[in-house]
Amino acid sequence: MADLLHGLSVDVEEYFQVGAFERTIAKADWPSYASRVAANTGRVLDLFAGAGVHATFFTLGWVAERHPALIRRIVAEGHEVASHGWDHQRVFTMTADEFRADLARARHALEDAAGVAVTGYRAPSFSIDARTPWAFPVLAEAGYRYSSSVAPLAHDHYGWPDSPRYAWRPLADADLIELPVTVAELGGRRMATGGGFFRLFPAALTDFAVRQVASADRPAVFYFHPWEVDPAQPRVKGAPLKSRVRHYARLGAMAGKLDGLIRRHRWGRVDAVVAREAARL
Question: Which one, out of 113, 235, 240, 244, has a CA that is 20 to 30 A from the CA of 276?
Fold first, then answer.
């Protein structure tokens, strides 16, 4: 359906905070790395402005605390600010109480910088899965309207292959909605289509996934990171080969591929997509 609104999202974090480097760079050393997140997110905002689209920026509280002007710009340009947690700790490594504290700390920083309520959440590295049955109740208790934290596929770092592919209500006694990121289904197999997968594979795969879910009258949810439009970022020494390949491959092609994708489909904020899906659940 050509008029169907799809969810466009950006996971806002520094290049040195990604899951691929979590065993290479200690969090205590983060302040020693040059920050590039404000400039990179600024490029993304300019790209969106040029295409006339709005999106949701799932942002680390750690970033919001250090770059409040960036958060204010995101809001001023009509985008949604949502939570990506405090410092990119995977949810399945926390207890329920630790998760509750992480959510509160991140939300305080985000709302203080943005001046608006934060009602959406995305787990770092899509780390809500079958191991975290307590995560959705904690989100609902905190008043979140939606989560986009599940990748409904099998992957070596994350994934919940038994999750529904489309929006669903994980709790019988709450209005919370989970809106998984979009995967393509080919030959009975689910394939990721955002982030590094979008960089590494032909854009036609993501276009196929968008058309595939749209044919079922369901919206796509696409994601990427600001560091992916920064081919000049410093190279992290000592990282495993697989991590380096995943992180650095085809960074120079990303901005052009993104510009094409956002012009070929109708994109908008994730909260707007959730509102439409909520009416049908």
Answer: 113
Mean pLDDT in order along the chain per 10 residues (281 residues): 89 96 95 97 98 98 98 98 98 98 98 98 97 97 98 88 96 98 94 95 97 97 98 94 92 98 98 96 92
Burial code (b: 16+ CB inside 10 Å, e: under 16) for 130-155 equals: eebeebbebbbebebbbbbbbbbbeb
Residues 6+ apart with CB under 8 A from 117: 111
Other beta carbons within 10 angstroms of residue 208's beta carbon come to 16
Question: Sign of the CA dihedral 261, 11, 14, 49?
Answer: positive
As a whole number of angstroms, the distance between CA 72 and CA 33 comes to 24
For residue 248, give both structure tokens. 């650095």
The Cβ of residue 92 has, within 10 Å, a number of other Cβ atoms equal to: 16
